[in-house]
Amino acid sequence: MTTQTRSDVKVGVSAYLLAGIVVAVVQFALLAHDFPLAELFSSKPITTVDHAFHLYQILFSLDLAEQGKIVGYDPTFAAGYIGGVTFNASAKVPALAAWLFHDWLGAVVVYKLYVFLAALIAPVCLPIAARLLRLDRTSTWFASGFGLLLWWASAFHWDHTVGMVSYVLVSFLAIPYCAALYRALLAGCGWGQAIGLGLLGAGLFFLHPFFPVVVAIFVLVFHAFHFNQYSLKQAIPRLIVITILSLLPNLIWLHAMLSAPSFADAAASPYQKIVDIRIILLEITGQWRGSGMGAKIYPLLAMLAAWAAWRAAPETRRRALTFFVMWIVLILFAALGAALPGMGSLQPNRFSAMGYLFLVVPAAMGMDIVLQSIRSKNNVAWLAKLTLVVLFPVATLVVMEFVREASDAQSGRYGKPPPEVRGLGASNDALLQWLKGNTNDGGRVLFETSLARIHDGAHIAGLLARLSGREFIGGPYPYMFFASFWDGHVFGKPIKEIENLKFRSYLDLYNVGWIAAHSSESLRYLRVLPFLREVTQIGAVHIYTVDRPLSYFLAGNGSINTRVKNRVFVLQDLMRGSPIVLKYHYVKGLHAIDGSPLTPIYLADDPQPFIKIVPRTKSVEIVF
Which of 127, 171, 140 is CA-nearest to residue 356? Predict the structure, then answer.
């Protein structure tokens, strides 16, 4: 015998609206303290972990937008690379907002507003999904509460505070979108609905590239449970329209990103692609250790969702099972997906948190069923009571975690402790001032980045290079490019494996004048090299100067008068007809305005070619 849920009972719009307002007010109050609100319009940036990297991406995208471009040549890192949306999977929306509003607010404030609003909007998605799924009042309130708890007391809060803002937001937005798709498919999905869902899908795809992956999985799961409840023949043309409309506006940046050399570096990076079935067990038991990023709310959601899958009335059971199985598919993909060819580039481990977000819908329905069973004293009332007894201490722990996350506690947290807006940090500011006062633009800085984020908790290389006006060799983030330096690894291998003379040749090839290192492996290697001299130490960072003449000309002579984003070089004092090789990477699209031939030339073991030019005049301007 099943327990009748009240999901099909008519509930006024005001009930859902009230739940949404309550969630928004509570979230705003908590964010006002955590952010804090007083810093929203200040000049102090958010730099924690990935925030600093995204701000660098936004500032470069803003440079390009002012020239009417979305991609361009950035000489700031890796001896020049294609940047912009090509290596901007998740900061495109704040970059667009910065382009629209930077004259009034500035890029730093625009980004902070985006981070704040993304946090405010996310939990409100659950009351909206409840409305679209026609959940009853009790289920709506529990879904709203679970969503709020998940944002604060799970991996989502960690992800948001370390800079994965768009991913968290699109995860929450995927719930009402899939709810709308669910409702539309069951109702026959008219052409107007298909167009609306397609256009909305385009926006969410632009927000984050993982969005269509979740929707595609949801459509397959939906079909598995409702193939005899709707016309697949009628739905397929609508789904094609939704897919085309979602894809078409994004082809510009998709083509640019997929064809850029930097995309291969991103796809090959080791982030979020552990293959380990134990991830499922660790997370469903609420453990955050090893490869598992569990939360105490996870077992609570799983137990309540099982009630909905088991006891929901026939007319609502398929709804519960659709979201329940969606959870199962996503957590399996999270634990094992990277073992499938090509799937590692999607960073499968991230999808586990999304799975538990989908579990909120059947969990809220399950809570309603448990309460109904106790009130009606049916044949499973005893089991319902036992469920509440078991869940009470778990729920207590969840509430305690929620309170701790919303407080000033510095330990035992999922997210970074407040305030979220911290500025550059003392060490980073000292590094910036040293770079400005003790280096020049005649050479590059070999800067060691850190997975452990030792630079005041930030991936700060991008901002340091931009704010100091210096070029860095390597990447603004670990694992980017061959010409990179992170945690004891440089130029594609551990630094200790590189012979001294070979290392010296790399410094010449990339015109390195200064080295900033922090890892013990790097410091052991660098301190004995006779052509280096340590000049200062700032925090954990030791800075060395390189005993070599600085020049961006590998072959030939001349001077570089101007280096700016996209309008790249103005070369002067050249000898006409005499070949020149620059210590900058060649990419398709670079050309000389006067028609001087540019060709790629491969040097050493760098997989990216350098620029060779035979000047026709004494002054040549190279642009992208």
Answer: 171
Which helix (H) or strand (E) element contains residue 222?
helix 211-226
Q: Taking a C-beta distance cutoff of 8 angstroms, is the pair 222, 322 a contact?
A: yes
Where are the chain's structural domains? 13-405, 426-546, 553-623
Q: Tell me which of 125 and 441 has the higher pLDDT.
A: 125
* Nearest Cα to Cα of residue 581 among 515, 510, 512, 513: 510
Q: Is 134 left (phi over 0), alpha (psi -120 to 50) or beta?
A: left
577/584 Cα distance (integer angstroms): 20
User: Which pLDDT tens digit goes with each residue over 363-399?
Assistant: 999 999 999 999 998 899 999 999 999 999 999 999 9
Q: What band does 7 get if pLDDT is binned at 50, 70 and 90?
A: very low
Q: How far is CA 121 from CA 67, 399, 552, in A?
A: 32, 21, 48
User: Comparing C-alpha atoms, which of 378, 566, 415, 550 is closest to residue 473?
Assistant: 550
Distant-in-sequence, close-in-space partners of 170: CB < 8 Å, separation ≥ 6: 204, 207, 208, 210, 211
Q: Are the C-beta atoms of residues 328 and 390 closer than 8 Å to each other? A: no
* Mean pLDDT, range 338-355, rounded to an integer: 92
User: In terms of Cα–Cα distance, which of 291, 33, 24, 32 is closest to 155?
Assistant: 291
The Cα–Cα gap between 147 and 125 comes to: 8
Please tell me the predicted confidence (pLDDT) of residue 474: 81
Q: How far apart are CA 110 and CA 524, in angstroms?
A: 42
Instruction: Determine contact, residues 557/575, Cβ cutoff 8 Å.
Output: yes
pTM: 0.94
Weakest-pLDDT range from 37-41, 193-197, 341-345, 610-614: 341-345
Between CA 19 and CA 285 the distance in angstroms is 29
374 CA to centre of own chain: 44
pLDDT tens digits, residue range 105-121? 999 999 999 999 999 99
Using alpha carbons, select from 293, 372, 296 the residue that is nearest to residue 331: 293
